[in-house]
Amino acid sequence: MTETLETKSLTLNYGDSNIIENLDLSIPMNEITVLIGANGCGKSTLLRSIARLLKPKHGSVLLDGQDIFKLSTKQVAKKLSILPQSPVAPEGLTVLQLVKQGRYPHQNWRKQWTEKDEEIVLNSLKATGVDHLQDKLVDELSGGQRQRAWIAMTLAQDTDIILLDEPTTYLDLTHQIEILDLLFELNQQQKRTIIMVLHDINLACRYADHIITVRDRGVFQQGRPEEIMTKTLVKHVFDLDCKMTNDPIFGTPLCIPFGKGRKIS
Amino acid sequence: MKHLKTIRLLQNKVSFLLDIKASKKLTLISIIALAVFFFSASFGDSFINPIKVLQVLIGKGSDFDQLIIVDFRMPRIFLAAFAGMALAVAGAILQGIIKNPLASPDIIGISAGGGAAVVGFLAMFSDSNHSLTVSIEWLPLAGFIGATIVGLIVYVFAWKDGVTPTRLVLIGIGVSAFMQAITTMLMIIGPIYQASEANKWITGSVKSADWNQVQIVVPLILILLLITFFITRQLNVQELGDDTAASLGQSVQKTRLFLLLLSSSLVASAISFAGAIGFVGLMAPHIARRIVGPSFGVLIPTSAAIGALLVMVADIIGRTAFNPLEVPAGVFTAAIGAPYFIYLLFRNPRK
Asked: What positions does the domain ABC transporter occupy (chain A) (predicted)?
């Protein structure tokens, strides 16, 4: 079981400009954490660096106290997986062939399909509801199905921690909910730690146990949505005037942005 | 999973999932390739009945047939088949790295590098009487070194915090054009015989094959193909994109460098004796992908079989169609390959 995931005086850069500066951050385990912030604030960059896809300029990401760049990448891959934003599968790949790749860090050239591999791949297909599509080509699936197939691959990697970079981008609302429900269930039933970047503040408030708001090259505020999400925070983080209320069904914070539009009295 | 079969051997020490449908197709293509391999010994200046060919192969033919088949025809068939396999697999590897069906050794300059090195060799080792100061046997080595070095140059130039597929292609096209310019310049200012010698090599031909060449090239290509077959997993993962591959625990850049070296070595061994037979590395893996799908475990051997078929058939046409004139195999692969390339360009406007 993975115990801790944290960053120590982490500085990230693109060229000469720092995106994140000197950040100390600890991610709660077995919970859903959502990173939110304005476009270009560095939330995706931060997520990618936590998943060791981006080398920090200074500081480090610690997985169970060890620098993630000093561990072998295969070792890390057994504890932590990341689903990048809008991944593209090679033309002609079937769902099963895709999901099977999730077993890569657990395999070698002799053992490419052990009983454990088979069991975990089939479970991942079932958990994401794509088991009936396993012989279909990934590029022939609808957006929502395709995203579920990719999540199945990530699940097959069998890691305690799963990171997702905007898993609901390009999906219609129905499929956004479907994907978030799926991730919610994975967290509830299998106690997987989920860390993701989302654009929709309201969905973030509904699904996240823990919200991290990113601004000014660091974390602006973090905590349970119902404790930290206020109109002052939204104003600071997104530069948006809004009214905060409670979701009539879920009771979680609901942000209603001001602006123009039709008004019915 | 109807067409898939789980294979577990030696108390689960070896296990894999076999795609029965794709394997059947691979077997069929391999059988066709083997048949062409044997029957192509019938074709040439004179047609020799396939039954006679079989007699010769089991050591019962006439001395004359023996001479023609074993000494003249078999070496070039071997060379054609193995050069075809090597070029096709090199192309399949590049397509895996670059994730684009247009990627091939011709496009990213590896073949052009071999060509420039060959012409450079001829220029450097010619004396004032226009005759070579060293043995022509060294020519293939020059081609090998040129192809490998250019492969590395492309890689190094494309490096910027890692090598991205797009940069690899763009730098490759640039380097390729540069190499072709050097080749053309050397051919124009060089002696006449050099131009014809170089031309033969640049077009790609298995005409001058002999058993010595076969003894060098075949084991080399076999070893490289075997290595490729054992790392198909890496290719599968590499093709999912850099981020996904890294998430799955692959050392993306190290693997990419190794794969590029492997691909360059395959191209270099193929073209060292057979010359730069064009478009095989583009067409074969692409055709194979359409037949068996993108999983490299079966894609690599299928590409190899189709590559061998293409070059063997091109060579059969080359030595029979305009008899008594011989046309290099590379002319025919280019004649089908160039339109195929244009077709691919139109089919993939978004790529």
From this structure: 5-241
